[in-house]
Backbone:
């Protein structure tokens, strides 16, 4: 039993990071996909945003959905991860400001629609962006220390 506990989580950092990206991508793609099952979602959310004087209110739901649907696969395949994470962060942080903050902290149990889940998503986005930047820095450092071929 001690050996089992010592080896937890049984995955490498690389494998865990892949699952982390897969999870984040899946959460955003699922969120975007559900919009297509809600009749008049895009118009109704545009109206909601317009009432709060959000610029481009009727365009933003389409933009967020497009970013989530395109960004998800890019994140899964670790392409432009920092930029996808920044976009997802913007969507989540915007949701906190426009919707969730006024509803309190808790999403469920002790509240309804609060910002705790969105804060967790923002932190996940920051982790992906930081990991991608670190990977890019390593590649750049390796390229700087290689000798040109003759």
Residues:
């Amino acid at each position: 039993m001690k050996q089992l506990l010592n080896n937890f989580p049984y995955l490498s950092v690389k494998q865990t990071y892949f699952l982390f990206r897969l999870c984040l991508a899946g959460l955003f793609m699922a969120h975007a996909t559900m919009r297509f099952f809600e009749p008049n979602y895009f118009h109704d959310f545009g109206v909601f945003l317009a009432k709060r004087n959000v610029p481009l209110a009727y365009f933003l739901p389409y933009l967020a959905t497009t970013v989530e649907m395109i960004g998800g696969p890019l994140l899964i395949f670790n392409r432009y991860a920092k930029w996808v994470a920044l976009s997802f962060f913007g969507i989540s942080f915007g949701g906190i400001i426009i919707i969730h903050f006024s509803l309190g902290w808790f999403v469920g149990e002790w509240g309804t629609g609060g910002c705790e889940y969105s804060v967790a998503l923002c932190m996940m986005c920051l982790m992906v962006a930081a990991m991608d930047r670190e990977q890019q820095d390593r590649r750049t450092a390796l390229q700087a220390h290689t000798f040109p071929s003759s």
